[in-house]
Amino acid sequence: MSTPIEPSLARRPDHVPEALVVDFDFYELPGSDEDIQTAYRQFQVQGPDIFWTPRNGGHWVATRADDILVMQKDHQRFSYRHITLPPMPEVAPRQIPLEIDPPQHAHYRRPLMQALQPAAVAKLEQGVHDVAVEAIERLLPLGECEFVENFAKVLPIHVFLRMVNLPLEDKNFLLPIAEDSVRGRNAETRFKSMVAMGAYLQKWVNERREAPGDDLLTQIVNVEINGQRISHDEAISYAALVLFGGLDTVAGMLSFFARHLATHDVQRRQIVERLDDDAFLKRAIEELIRRHGMANTARVVTHDFEYKGVRFRAGDRLLPPNLLVGIDDRLNPDPLTVDFAREGGIHAAFGNGPHACPGASLARRELRIFLREWLSRIPEFRIKAGTKPVMATGMVNGILKLELAWS
């Protein structure tokens, strides 16, 4: 897929051979308006395993699972210190704890792990269930809905804002900011979203540091490192990153699930018939997650070295897309096909290693509750006639609009 590059884009560094240059822009992938993961896969099967693109500041892209899994775990060579592309301005605060490498990373991460471990998440289940049922019952008699706004952004956001004890009515202000953060086309847009989120959080962070409560926000803004509480600026950065994650990612996965089931009647009915089969439902959820990976986080090469014949230089930026692990045919045969009988389907939708998503357990629980409560009430649904899902790629891929209809 090597193509001529426009002269206005990043210049090819001397250590990058011309044969490894591919015109790849993960904000504008050909075919992504039809299927985002299929659009990514075209580069996986048609180009080099690792290539360099002049887009978005110039960076490497790894396309195969074995390399991506190495890059997710090996912080000695592939640092997390800058995770966005194009690079954020130098004045931008680092995104804590994601842009901190081990071992320091573990100190910041601990309160999130404690708050989101399976036993703690189990206590949230009734609340998740109640929010889901209320939303579905409200939509059911209408016979149609715009799923993203009317459900996908309702369930996880209600649950998350309760966890951090922030006003539910603030969601309409926060959601556009989160959208700009994860899918903003340029560094300026994403930086402005960070500033806006930081400004919003000032009041709440001050309050929780002066009068701690028992909520998740209190825990993360009062983290102690070596016996000393993190600074106010670090607390703002940490809280902002947690809010960005909590407000967007599960909503995106819910939408991918709904889109797939609306267009695959046989598989939707398989799940409907086995909603009480925990083992089957767990396998179906993992298979749908595998097929619909979303997140991207960039890396920075820490020093000069050669990897599988590719010469990396200190400061090179690299994108190892999580979703390409799940759809790599070297790992999962016929990877674009969803098969609930698949054995050992491997994916990296929640990352791997020290930076694996601490909210994975909560996300899986919300997805399970969605399937059980939605399909028990609306077992037959489809894409509304005359409409088409609106999708977007970026640091987090997602569906912006999904109109569904049912009898």
Order of helices and strands: HEEHEHHHEHHHHHEEHHHEEEEHHEEEE
Tell me the number of helical segments per DSSP (H or I, 4 or more residues long). Answer: 15
Distance between the termini: 45 Å
The largest pleated sheet is described as:
5 strands, mixed
Helix amount: 40-55%
Instruction: Tell me the Rg in angstroms.
Output: 21 Å
Just give the CATH class: Mainly Alpha
Averaging pLDDT over every residue, what do you get?
Answer: 92
What is the CATH T-level topology?
Cytochrome p450
Biggest sheet: strand arrangement? 1-2-10-7-3
What is the count of structural domains? 1
CATH homologous superfamily annotation: Cytochrome P450
Total number of strands:
14
Question: What report would you give on this structure?
Answer:
α8 (171-183) packs across α9 and α9 (187-210) packs across α11 (232-263). Helix content is 46%, strand content 10%. A hairpin with a 5-residue loop joins β12 (390-392) and β13 (398-401). Mean pLDDT is 92; it is low at 1-7. The strands form five sheets. Strands 1-2-10-7-3 form a five-stranded mixed beta sheet. The protein has a three-stranded antiparallel beta sheet with strand order 4-14-11. Strands 5-6 form a two-stranded antiparallel sheet. The chain starts with 35 loop residues before the first helix and ends with a strand. It is globular, with a radius of gyration of 21 Å. The protein is built from 15 helices and 14 strands. The longest helix is centred in the middle third of the chain and has 32 residues, at 232-263. It has one domain: Cytochrome p450 (Orthogonal Bundle), CATH 1.10.630.10. The protein has helices at residues 36-46, 65-73, 104-115, 118-122, 125-139, 147-152, 155-163, 171-183, 187-210, 216-221, 232-263, 265-273, 278-291, 323-326, 360-377; strands at residues 50-53, 59-62, 78-79, 144-146, 224-225, 228-229, 299-301, 305-307, 310-312, 317-319, 382-383, 390-392, 398-401, 403-405. It is α+β, with helices and mostly antiparallel strands and 407 residues long.
